[in-house]
Amino acid sequence: MIFGVRRPAFDPLTLNLLNEWMREMAYEMGSGTFGDQPGFENEDGSVVLRVEVPGLDASDIDVQVHGRTVTIRADRKDSVPAGMRVLRRERGGDVSMVRTATIPSSADPDQCHAELKNGLLVLHFSQRERTGPRRITLDEGRP
Amino acid sequence: MEEHEHAPQTQDSLATSEPAPVARGRDERIVRRTIPCDVLENDTAFLVIGELPGVAREDLTVEIQANTLIVRGERRIDSEITKFERSFVVPDAADVDQVQATLDAGLLRLEIGKTSRSRPKRIPVG
User: From the list B4, B10, B36, which residue is nearest A33 (CB)?
Assistant: First the structure.
């Protein structure tokens, strides 16, 4: 080492990849109950997905269906109110969340409506009519 | 993060972070959860902000027993009942007669006033 120039512990490429990975982790993990427990359930003729988004308005949430994939993005701005001091922080402050789920085959991705109530986002997909097994007739091969 | 000496203390025995399903009845199940909370303060009050997604106002209770603040909420979705619970030991500086609670969009805000003795007092210099 000459004149205070120190070699980095990681080469820049490794460091960039690590930073990128950590950013993605933070983005995916969220905090508190925010965005926990996605999972589809069958209920009264529809397929339902619930995502917890406490403290959010509809304007903070973006829901997109693309093919059989539903993507929910939400941003929570949760800065400390002016003049307050933090004694305990469990909810994580500002959080961005992305949740992606594959819509089950029993649900119709084109028939979806979303509601937000008491900090719970509920997506309702219409259930597809079940079709029984279909017999395929075989054409006789020509000689 | 460093915690303040007189912050409301959580009672961890009630604050189970892992869901603990308990079978009840044939199709019903109960899940117990803690309530993630932020605790803040200024010179005049403590502010507790807790997450209770899906809990309606009528299904929430806030009680003070001696020096313990207890929050309980319940959410029922079909056959699953989720019970949220958290308790705090309130510090001496808190005035338990001055507690205001609001629940909006699954977010509980509890404002607990401070006793006048605990508030900073400016002493004029003669």
Answer: B36
